[in-house]
Design brief:
It is built from five helices and three strands; from the N terminus they run ααβααββα. It is of the alpha+beta class and 105 residues long. α2 (14-25) packs across α4. The protein has a single domain (3-99), classed as Arc Repressor Mutant, subunit A. The radius of gyration is 19 Å and the shape is elongated. 63% of the residues lie in helices and 13% in strands. A hairpin with a 2-residue loop joins β2 and β3 (65-70).
Length: 105
């Protein structure tokens, strides 16, 4: 399974997506995240593990706990994957926009 597949699978879960969005707003600890989602602290930790393994978040030790941040390298890889589709779509749009009206019929 590629990192792209892992990232898409990780974000396919609604709770994990919410956790990802919370971390995207600002770095957070497990305890902070747990207060924002309807699952146990243990479940939050498991979701964060999946997000970390898929390179969407990274952890930084702070005292007795970890603070979770977005992983710029992993997000860059995912963005590169998504950009392929955007670039192809823009190229197709450019061709369509440059056609003369009589060519498009």
């Amino acid at each position: 399974m590629t990192v792209d597949d892992m990232q898409l699978d990780a974000l396919g879960d609604r709770t994990r997506r919410k956790i990802f969005e919370l971390v995207a707003e600002r770095p957070r600890s497990v305890a902070e995240i747990t207060r924002q989602v309807p699952v146990s602290q243990s479940a939050v930790s498991q979701h964060l593990k999946t997000l970390r393994e898929s390179r969407l978040v990274r952890s930084e030790p702070k005292g007795a706990s970890n603070v979770y941040h977005l992983d710029p390298a992993g997000l860059g890889q995912m963005r590169g994957w998504l950009d392929r589709f955007w670039i192809k779509t823009l190229a197709t749009y450019k061709v369509a926009a440059e056609q003369r009206p009589e060519e498009s019929q």
